[in-house]
Description:
Elements: H1 5-14, E1 19-25, E2 37-41, E3 45-48, H2 56-65, E4 71-77, H3 79-85, E5 90-99, H4 106-112, E6 117-124, E7 127-135, H5 144-150, E8 156-159, E9 163-168, E10 173-178, H6 181-192, E11 196-200, H7 203-211, E12 218-222, H8 226-238, E13 243-247, H9 250-262, E14 271-272, H10 284-300
Helix pairs in contact: 1-4, 6-10, 7-8, 8-9
Amino acid sequence: MYGIALSVAACLRAGTRVDVAWILDHPDSEQGRGAEAVGLTPGGGKLGSLLSGALDGQLGELAAIQGDHGRVLQFDVGAADAAVSGIEPVTGISCVLVQASKLPPELWERLLAREAVCLLSDLEGDAIVSTSLYTADSIDEADDDVCRIFQRGTSASQLTDTRAITGLWPVPQLIMVGGGDIADSLVKLAEMLGWNTVLTRNTQEATGLIASTSPLDSVVVAGHDLELTGPALSVALEGDVGYIGAIGPRRLQEAWVDWLSYRGQTDLSRLHGPAGLEIGAQSPDEIALAVAAQIVANRSSPKAHTR
Length: 307
């Protein structure tokens, strides 16, 4: 849902109808629920996709004839659609299909800020009667089932005869700028942790990605190319990214400080350099582990130990 929030919000501001669909229940428990969503606009416009597009055609047809009330619908993916989408055929998928304007208006603001939220939809049959929004600030007001879904810390859902609960948690993003063995190891480790990862050696791409990061995300630079890593650090320090790390020997750390200072950036209190907790790491894999641990610690506490 986070991936389409900006486009959905733009449609709502423009007064354009957009129907939103996401998976509530999938026979394969490994399939992510809630976080993946598709937005459907009149005339066949599409934002995002579900199951690599396997459900998009069916959802588009239903959105075109759906009235004001959202519904919980059952879908099957046959052999033909499965082959085109590169997935296995599956039956018994439960999805929400609802007008975005019928969801709590605050939802899109929260998703754009990449906050964790929980939606509670009351049902009459397959029709959605109303939907309530809970956030970290209000989750204590929810009942036990809603709290349990939200407190899992990952996107999840629960469907009963009378209601649907959807917990949405953003996935942390690591932007790795530069290269080398440590950078490669860190990217692999981040992927194992389920983070979204980008490894880039392009200055324009790096600064563009970093400019849209949130406090949940991390930026790490490595390598001697100051014309790549310098601008990346500069944009990161000016933005909201939660963790900024620099991998390299003391001489390179000093070069980064000089590069930033020359351009007027002297408050480097958010920069972790050398990046990583002090665990006696020596090999690239061990250093990557130390950096990943520091990212997690920093996310939990702004006073995380640094070396």
